[in-house]
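Supplementary Note 2. Why include the ligand at all?

Several targets in our set were suspected to adopt different conformations when bound, so apo predictions alone were not considered sufficient. For every target with a known small-molecule partner we therefore ran a joint prediction. The input for nicotinamide-adenine-dinucleotide is given below.
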Amino acid sequence: MTTLLVTGGCGFIGSNYVRWVLDRHPDYRIINVDKLTYAGNPANLKDLDGDERYRFVQADIGDTPRMTDLMRGVDLVAHFAAESHVDRSLAGAGEFIATNVFGTYSLLVAARENGVNRFLHVSTDEVYGPVGPENPSTEDAAFRPTSPYAASKTGGELMASSFFHSYRFPVVITRGANTIGPYQYPEKAIPLFTTNAIEGKPLPLYGDGRQVRDRLYVTDHCAAADLVLHEGEPGRAYNVWAGNDCDNRAAAEAIVDTLGASHDLITPVEDRAGHDQSYYMDGSRLRGMGWRPQYDLESSLRTTVEWYRDNRWWWEPIKSGEYQDYYEKQYGKRLAAAGKQSP
Ligand code: NAD
Ligand code: DAU
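The joint prediction is reproduced in token form.
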């Protein structure tokens, strides 16, 4: 039996990864450590109730004694936990530094002390900062993060690689592109646009909507993470790039078309501060290990939109309560300036 400790397993990618691993590694047991911030939702894994191979522990990764305790007997770590939303980091980055930098350090200390065999640190293409298609970032490119979120992820990643360089602790790193799919908190563009379109509400498109993102499907991200965890070379980073790049306006149009909603819902609003125009990565290192995305742009977007259309039970409770306050702060004035009421 192999014991895998996953952090952030109640979030978007982490919960998909937990399910992915249990489906593919019958001899694995998983400990899911999650603080249950606003973004952590036990409903993401409610289908695992009663599965003896799965254990949930509510804890903060910054609690080093607790992590050291939990890490006893653990073979592998997959570290997804983070504060993940760029817009929230622009409003205040204290939690981002606490979790993404110190929390990562705390986990590394606990894992090293317990002789963990492999530590996957889940990083992001945002560490490279904005680049265009003519100059895709290779894994050796310089880090030029621009947002407080990206800066905190860069700090955490540098800490992880320092454990390899200083102690030969077997850290491997993925740098994932913008990911979409089931169970993504509806503050992120694709689930926000989709659920708003379902409700007949405006889709707030930042600036001219011509910023470009990859649309990596979440199970493709999970497959990449699992491959790197098991077969990556210690000390190395791997870009996870699907090549499903499209601009935000095109994504919004595809969403309303899939749902049969009106294009009039697409509402240009005041831009995000310091909005990165695009990220592009060279994905050849991971492809050299055999990874291929199973979803292209069309199927990634369509499968995602259909899931939200068919799973209102999941997102309707989230969009009430606390979420409303966030929404009003983030979009109230923007939508009013665009002549639309926020809900
Ligand atoms: P998410 O916000 O959906 O989930 C984060 C999870 O971490 C939540 O369950 C939350 O409760 C938990 N968490 C936060 N702080 C914690 C703490 N201090 N202790 C324990 N648990 C804590 O995030 P996501 O989109 O699933 O992203 C997962 C990882 O992948 C992050 O590291 C993110 O930087 C990285 N990433 C995300 C994307 C993307 O497009 N979503 C792309 C590339 C990389
Ligand atoms: O690229 C990887 C990153 O992708 C991850 O590291 C982050 O954790 C993840 O959140 C994501 O960051 P983005 O900033 O790209 O994701 P978001 O969904 O917030 O925004 C996607 C694009 O859509 C971006 O260009 C901003 C734009 N946008 C976003 C929101 C929330 C809008 O136009 N309107 C919106 O309301």
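Residues 94-113 form the longest helix (20 residues). The chain is about 40% helix and 15% strand. Comparable summaries for the other entries are listed in the accompanying table.
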